[in-house]
């Protein structure tokens, strides 16, 4: 099963166009909102920078990835990040970068996260896991990212995430962010775009569900005597 998930990443589909052409299923929703949270230094800002770079067709520095020597949390506030679509506009989503979650005095706390979600926690928002830094988890994958679907180490890491966090395997996306590269690389792009596309699909399904529920409520109201 894991093999299938990972193999699917390498289907030759122009995912970038699918994201560019994304239509939101709920006419009342203008933007899909993605919130990225997680421990300090795990690659949250780098993920956003990487996505930005892919759509700009060159390395971008929008969300300011942390310098590797810095030991605190670099992203000090919620950072809603729009991504240019490459045609003079913006893609129909924003990614909120939140500084690393920490137990001590620094970093963001769970309360900040709740505030960012503005009470939407109760409704059960869709969640996925980005398994970053796959290049550091497996030397083979570091040499050739295409070997990711064969890597036992990556499979183990995905399983570990799934067990620890109770998230199904098909909601865990292994990625390698751009961290030192000068030029874009197709194999890096494929993993990142596949993760993004899935995140957007889940968000889109969620807003569509809301739309259907609201429509049903309205119909019930008008049909009741
Ligand atoms: N090898 C490797 N390094 C990465 C990857 N993603 C990020 N990094 C590096 O990890 C360090 C931290 O990355 P950030 O993107 O700043 O992490 P963050 O989660 O935004 O950190 P805070 O904002 O401090 O919470 C940087 O030195 C990045 O270059 C990756 O996929 N592979
Ligand atoms: Mg950051």
Structure explained in plain terms:
With 225 residues, the protein is an alpha/beta fold. It has a single domain (2-218), classed as Rossmann fold (3-Layer(aba) Sandwich). It has helices spanning 2-8, 15-20, 44-56, 110-116, 134-137, 139-143, 152-165, 186-223; strands at 32-36, 79-84, 90-97, 129-131, 172-174. Strands 1-3-2 form a 3-stranded mixed sheet, with helices on one face. A two-stranded parallel sheet has the order 4-5. Mean pLDDT is 83; it is low at 63-71. The structure holds guanosine-5'-triphosphate and magnesium ion. Residues 44-45, 66, 74-75, 97 line the site of magnesium ion.
Quickly list its features:
225 residues, Rossmann fold, 8 helices, 5 strands, binds guanosine-5'-triphosphate
CATH C-level category: Alpha Beta
Sequence of strands across the biggest β-sheet: 1-3-2
N-to-C span: 52 Å
Per DSSP E runs of 2 or more residues, the count of β-strands stands at 5
- Principal-axes geometry comes out as globular
Bound molecules: guanosine-5'-triphosphate, magnesium ion
How large a portion of the residues is in β-strands, by DSSP E? 5-15%
Give Rg in angstroms.
Answer: 19 Å
What count of structural domains?
Answer: 1
Let me know the average pLDDT. Answer: 83
CATH architecture: 3-Layer(aba) Sandwich
Low-confidence stretches: 63-71
Q: Helices and strands in order, then pairings?
A:
Elements: H1 2-8, H2 15-20, E1 32-36, H3 44-56, E2 79-84, E3 90-97, H4 110-116, E4 129-131, H5 134-137, H6 139-143, H7 152-165, E5 172-174, H8 186-223
Parallel strand pairs: 1-3, 4-5
Antiparallel strand pairs: 2-3
């Amino acid at each position: 099963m894991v093999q299938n998930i990972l193999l699917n990443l390498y289907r030759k589909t122009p995912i970038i166009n699918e994201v560019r052409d994304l239509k939101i299923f709920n006419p009342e929703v203008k933007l899909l909102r993605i919130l990225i949270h997680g421990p300090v230094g795990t690659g949250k800002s780098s993920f956003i920078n990487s996505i930005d770079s892919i759509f700009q067709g060159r390395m971008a520095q929008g969300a300011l990835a942390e310098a590797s020597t810095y030991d605190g949390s670099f992203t000090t506030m919620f950072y809603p990040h729009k991504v240019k679509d490459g045609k003079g506009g913006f893609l129909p989503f924003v990614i909120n970068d939140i500084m690393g979650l920490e137990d001590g005095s620094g970093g963001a706390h769970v309360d900040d996260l709740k505030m960012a979600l503005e009470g939407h926690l109760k409704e059960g928002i869709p969640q996925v896991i980005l398994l970053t830094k796959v290049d550091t988890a497996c030397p083979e994958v570091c040499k050739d990212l295409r070997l990711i679907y064969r890597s036992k180490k990556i499979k183990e890491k995905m399983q570990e995430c799934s067990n620890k966090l109770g998230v199904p395997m098909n909601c865990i996306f292994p990625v390698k962010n751009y961290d030192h590269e000068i030029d874009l690389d197709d194999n890096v792009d494929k993993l990142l775009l596949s993760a993004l596309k899935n995140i957007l699909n889940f968000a889109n399904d969620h807003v569509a569900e809301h739309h259907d529920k609201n429509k049903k409520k309205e119909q019930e109201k008008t049909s009741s005597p």
